Amino acid sequence: MDTPQYQSYFLTNPYFSAVIKQNPIYQNQNYFKTMCGIVAYIGSKQAYPILIKGLQRLEYRGYDSAGVALLNGNLNVYKKKGKVSELLSFAHDKDVSATLGIGHTRWATHGKPDDINAHPHLSGNGRLVLVHNGIIENYATLKTALQRLGHEFISETDTEVLVHLIEELQERENLLLEEAVRIALSKVHGAYAIVVIDKEDPTKIVAARKQSPLVLGIGNGEFLLASDATPIVEHTKRVVYLNDGEIVTARRDGSFEIKTINNEIQAPFIQKLDLTIEALEKGGYDYFMLKEIHEQPQTIADAMRGRINATEGWVRLGGMEEHLNRIMNADRLIIVACGTSWHAGLVAEYLFEELARLPVEVEYASEFRYRNPVITEKDVVIAISQSGETADTLAAIELAKERGALIYGIVNAVGSSIARLTDGGSYIHAGPEIGVASTKAFTGQVTLLTLMALEIGYKRGKIRKSEFQRLLTELEQIPSKVEEVLKINKAVEYISSEIKDSNNALYLGRGYNFPVALEGALKLKEISYIHAEGYPAAEMKHGPIALIDENMPCVIVCTNQSAYEKIVSNIQEVKARKGVVIAIVTEGDTVIKNLADYTLEIPDTAEPLTPLLSVIPLQLLSYHIAVMRNCNVDQPRNLAKSVTVE
Fold first, then answer.
1. 36 an active-site residue?
2. Choice among 33, 36, 210, 554 that is catalytic
3. Which end of the chain has fewer surrounding CB within 10 Å, N or C?
4. In a domain, 1, yes or no
């Protein structure tokens, strides 16, 4: 805790009295974080090239503006609205020599995207410079207090308030940087990952996190800090994922120390990165999204590796074993997620109810957390998130934990907040997903949820052994079948050229493929900016049919044998109104082929597994349309990879 001398300053200063009180308005708002990218370096190498490459690798986290601060005796700060390439052009003739520096790529929350609001931000005396992911919820109170003390602010950001607060403490009490940071953070409410350097002390970097990710890379006489491991892997495989409420001081002499905000020294847990540089490159593809679509045979296989054996007839998820009895005997499963992960949860609803005979509710995390839901200790909450940092999903987890539910996480990012908060969980092992529009993470999530449903269903006695064996065999064949689906890429490209100028599109599906229709519509919206809606095919007659004409392409997933005649009827209804039908069908289907304007074939598989195949043509369709419309496929406007701010 704060020592009396620090406390006395805040207690005797009337303008800070509100800061040290526990204002209830902030108590449940610790997850309102901004999705930005941080990278920092201290060592013997030139920092600028490391920072720029790191920012380029983190640009999927935000691309409204970018900036660096370099310390080489002088403190040089360069920042620019736009992408990292704009910063690179701006700084090409500037002094960028330094062996200590910090960088940031921004997704704007507080303050519009411009040069002034871009990070890094300086203290009033020009001594300190700081980069920040997150939102300081009580920044307005702090700002007012600091203004009364004579501080002047240039930007509209909460970040500038934080660096001024650290400055005030450092100067008033003559504190070391790490101590000023620690005391300052004890006075703020919200979420943050920060890195700070001091012009007067080029021997160290100070960083801290609370509910926003931060990784320390430990090299040979050097340290890197970043929002995730992608900027670090090229320099070292040894990392520490900082925990909430931890502050790290990394020194030029090769030493580092981790403390809590309560001033308790922590023993670091050093891990080895399971990540390759090749995974972070485009590998000859024009866009990361296209690369990630084509990686799915491998990523689906990786999600299953060591967890399934059809020959021996078993499924085993290590993260679930400890909690298996509680999950099997749950009153219900509640799935919380957002966006694409929510669609994966909808597929899981069909899987768990059919294969395991467990009642399932699938909730938008953003609504769940505000609805005062009925949750008991007999419920199991499954949280799904690619990044493991989704703000609303984190808040939903916290709510469910308070009410005694078991929390199980399905995430991709190792060391993420959701992975840390849950009682148990499983990684999908999809590797880094750089494209903002999720592809391989979706199929990885669905694969893992399928494994869960099969294991639980079989052990609950709800699946006959012969059917269990058949589904395992079919599931093991999915990666090779995805490879077959990818061979229709040219056909998808041609269809894309035919409909690329449409202003609207309708996606229809039934059963397991209704969530696939939703996902296909979302992908088209995300990267091509065409308005698209996904609907259960049977609901078309309850409204959307009024929109259908010759200018409205209808993408219909038609692989459900259980409702085949119904789907044929839906197609006939669309054609009767001159709608353009693009049908996803099972290989060899001739009936629908004769009805539809365009057909795309996928291999036959068991109906519960069809989403893993039927989604692939929809991913390719959205990709090609976006390219033809000259959209930025990997970095669509107004979007960042993970929504970590409300």
1. yes
2. 36
3. N
4. no
